[in-house]
Amino acid sequence: MRKAPVFCAVIALLLALALGGLILPDRQVSALENRVLSAAPAFSFAGFADGRWTDALETYTADQLPLRDAFVSLYTAGEALLGKRASEGVIRGAYGRLFDRTDGWKERNVALNAAALNELSAQTGLPVRLLAVPSAASVYPEAVPAFAPMADEEQLLRTAKAQVSLIEIKSALLESRRADAPLFYKTDHHWTAAGARIGYLAVCEALGLTPLAEEALQDYPGFYGSFYARFPLPWMAGDVFEAPIEASLRMEVNGEEKDGFLDADAVRGRDKYAALFYGNHPVMELTNASAPEGTLLVIKDSYANALLPALSRHFRTIVAVDARYYTGNIVDLANERKGESILCVYGLSTLASGRTIALLDGL
Amino acid sequence: MLFSSLTFLLYFLPAVALIHYFLPRKAQNPFLLLSSLLFYAWGDIRRVPLFAGLLIADWGLGLLIGKTERPQKRRLWLILGLLCSFGALLFYKYTAFLLGIVGVRLRMAQEMKLPLGISFFTFQAAGYLIDVYRGKAAPEKDPVAFGTFLFLFPQLIAGPIVRYQDLQKALHQKRRPDAQALDGGMSLFALGLGAKVLLANPLGAMYTELSAFSGDMACAWLSLIAYSLQIYFDFMGYSVMAVGMGRMLGFSFPRNFRHPYAARSVTDFWRRWHITLSAWFRDYVYIPLGGSRRGAGRTAVNLLCVWLLTGFWHGADWTFILWGLWYFVWLAAEKFLLRGREIRPAFLGRALTLLCVFLGWALFVSDGLADFGAYAQSLFCFRSGAGALFWAREYALLLLVSAVLCVPKAVEGVKGLARRYPALRFLLVIALIALSVASLAKSTFNPFLYFRF
Prior knowledge:
The complex is a heterodimer of chains A (363) and B (453).
Chain A: H1 5-23, E1 29-30, E2 35-36, H2 45-50, H3 52-63, H4 68-81, E3 86-87, E4 90-92, E5 98-100, H5 107-124, E6 128-133, H6 136-139, H7 153-161, E7 165-166, H8 170-175, H9 193-207, E8 217-223, H10 226-230, E9 239-244, E10 250-253, E11 256-257, E12 283-287, E13 293-300, H11 308-311, E14 315-322, H12 330-337, E15 341-347, H13 348-353
Parallel strand pairs in A: 6-7, 6-15, 13-14, 13-15
Antiparallel strand pairs in A: 1-2, 3-4, 4-5, 8-9, 10-11, 10-12, 12-14
Chain B: H1 6-22, H2 25-41, H3 48-67, H4 71-101, H5 107-111, H6 118-134, H7 143-151, H8 153-156, H9 164-171, H10 179-211, H11 217-248, H12 266-272, H13 275-286, H14 295-313, H15 318-338, H16 346-365, H17 369-379, H18 387-404, H19 408-420, H20 422-442
Helix pairs in contact in B: 1-2, 2-7, 3-4, 3-6, 3-7, 4-6, 7-9, 10-11, 10-18, 10-20, 11-16, 11-18, 13-14, 14-15, 15-16, 19-20
């Protein structure tokens, strides 16, 4: 056997990976892939007999593979070198930009969600406005590969507009493109502070508010977002995450007050956008005692998180409901909180890939 | 357990290869049989009774056939043995389909999971019994050695279909593969694993991606090319892994593929594709029926029988039967119209063969006749969107690499270089293993194609 270098090397390599995975302490999360890794499955005879345990062992082995991050990067780098531009629902574009693959978006979902907002307006008697944040692909079309499998976002917006009062921002976004202040992150699907600023100006116009001057921003370099987690390329530079410094804003989640609205731990990690408002909550309440206006009910997904700090300078109370996680009755909530109007801030992606608003209780 | 899983690669393979190497002769067969049992029961323990039942039945009947000289008794035992093997196959694989033909829908039959590899080891068992009956093989007295032959894990779930005579000697001696066998076996294994994980899996993803665009001719053809390459690299990969592991364990398995997409005719294709299955049908069906020695009419009938069975062997559905018929038509045409002449120039013969084989895969991959109808419509609808351009560029390099690796000279060239420069072989093998591990760790797309076989 000593004269069989290939055999010995491969067996040694495989055994080292096997033993390393079993002996080294398990990692709980993968920062690179931004997900929880699986833990060692407890053995049971029933689980072995029907394959649950064996399946779990395979997942565990993959997740706790020594040098997993290096192997994952090796794989995606290999894919990219083979010329792959679509992987795990992400499209690799020009100028280091990644995009959502949007051909799975459904017009029907947009129509149902928009109709539900219309219904909410009818039941509460309050005006409802929808700010649908387009994808980066429609703002940076020149960076999208030719003939990439993308949805027709114009058509989706038209569908929404047929049902509900739509705050249009796409043309404003296109006009505000500047090389030094990108409107969307390259490694994440969300918009930047600069992008959200355009959204803020449009909301002010729609609600009849006088826009305030731009707040000071704090820079946090080393942001690797959701796209990167799915298509990590070793040579890709991270984004600079920007968050407003908003001293007067107080936030409450389930009646519990938080220390500021930026999660100091999360902003040091890779997925920095999740630091805004400590992530997503079914309901959260933002209060600003010195603001001039009363109460605003916001139906939101994570796109709103970049916009809410600026809006909170206008409203004493913002009740923000994340339609994806909220299980209460939305009509009751709106009547109870006696807001003056309802604003929906949703990514077009969330609006078109699920029926989260249409499925809200009460609609 | 599948070869292309981390469980197999990281735990099973190194442990079995090392322990087997150092075990004394008497312990090698029991160890391999137990390992194969564990390999087979992995993920679904309900397969164990079938494993044990067939092992005992075929071993016992083989002994009985060998023990008596009386032709009637020998025939009786043989028929009983064939009933066991083919009965198990019929029961597990074809019950739902056959009942469906007469209009009966039994829930139990439809939910029955096909035991992995059943088509392979039942054929191997049947071949063994026939060979013992014909006096071509001596019956195996040792049940452990027999079980090791029948269920040896490298060839258990996707072939090659091995003859007992080919393993008999190795089964009864101390297997201590030399350095050349160990290194050569591991190199083959790495090549097979790479073919499966690094080519077939991405090609399968391409097929899945593109077959979603129904009604787009360019996408339909791209998806068909992707599937045709996928099934080749997948199946060939499995066979090469089996041969490689066999060598590491001291066995010599027959080669199952010989550059099939370089074939000059459909007849030639079937001499190069799944060689051990064609050989099985030739030796145990075609020739006993009289082969081609009893006139043109009888030859045609024999061919028809073989190809209906070959089609049906691949899956219990009308599409597979039609797929068999499809080959019958072309093989009969070549036999009776061309009479052994080749189409000239050679590239035309190759192109026509590929067209015929690829269109055959359209039947093969379709889930029922209605599905095939839709696929065929897409293939010949003469309509295409611009989306195909994106996907053609997306997969251009993968298709190019795969196509080059279908060319015999290219593959032999790489193998020649690896033989001449051991350092190059070493690096190539390590790279293939590392990339495969990376792919298995990251990618969620790792299909098993032979669950219908």
